[in-house]
Amino acid sequence: MIKHIVMWTLKPEANGRSAADNAAEMKARLEGLNGKIPGLKHLEVGVNVFAATPECHAALYSEFGSRADLDVYVAHPLHQECVAFIKQVVASRSVLDYEL
Prior knowledge:
Blueprint: E1 2-10, E2 13-14, E3 17-18, H1 19-31, E4 40-46, E5 58-64, H2 67-75, H3 77-89, E6 90-99
Antiparallel strand pairs: 1-5, 1-6, 2-3, 4-5
Helix pairs in contact: 1-3
């Protein structure tokens, strides 16, 4: 099992919207991928972050059956649509992948 975790710091404002509004949009778009990408077992996004070091405004937690499944997710067109939006609103990003 592969665990894929991403943490983002958002720009205070982007696309004419606040960081909170953009975080909510990220959450909706990303969680909308559940059941649509082969190998994606679970994906959730937290936007009510109350403690993080370093600071972040949103965090993604997802599970995949294998590294190959993670690769399919990363390249999938639906995921790439999310990435295009996220790149517009994010100031920084950290990623952690591990295998059980």
